[in-house]
User: Fold this.
Amino acid sequence: MAGAGSRVEAPPRSLLPFALPILIVLFASLPAVSQILPKVSLGFDKANGPKDVAVTLELVAMLTILSLAPSILIMMTCFTRVVVVLTFLKQALGTQNAPPNQMLMGLSLFLTFFIMGPTFKRVNDEALQPYLAEKLDYKVAIEKGMAPMREFMLKQVNEKDLALMVRISRSPTPKNVDDLSNFTLIPAFCISELRSSFIIGFLIYIPFLVIDMVVSSVLMSMGMMMLPPVMISTPFKLILFVLVDGWNLVIQQLVLSFR
Assistant:
């Protein structure tokens, strides 16, 4: 037994992991104001009518759309052109990890939201908000929501790519754009975006390719065969890109290419 003037020692730290659950149980057993916590359950039950089945089908359709959201974003917006052009720019500069791929993806995503802002606003005003207010049926809401997206894709798609998809699908020749199905328009739009992005990437490559050729010729004329030309050309490409304000020019032309 310790004396009256002795100091009480703290319990060893090795007992803390065992004491913490005991304290939680003790505090939980004390009378206190009970907190209402949400309960989430998932189960299968017999449907009472067609309305229950319709709600279930709407839930399944919503989960399917959410799982396909990345594909929808890539296939039906300007994301493809933006990310491919920025990737070509990074390869043309010759930098290995600058800027990182995550940064390019983030920049491409925000540029997509910026470019597609008016289209997304129309989808929200004409389809999403009326559907949430129960003014439109979900089928009508989907049709009204697809109308601005189809209008955007039709402005950017190439007629040659549309003709290719119509010919491959062996469907009858459409009389107007309203007869084009989404299964024909979306792949044609993606092919057109890839073509446009490769053309822009080629134009970006030209000045940097000239610098690489000049540096290689100079090194060979000086007899420096063992010196990698990339070590010399990369600083010159970076200086040129900074002097002409390359990021401003590339982003500006990318945004204006969709106007």
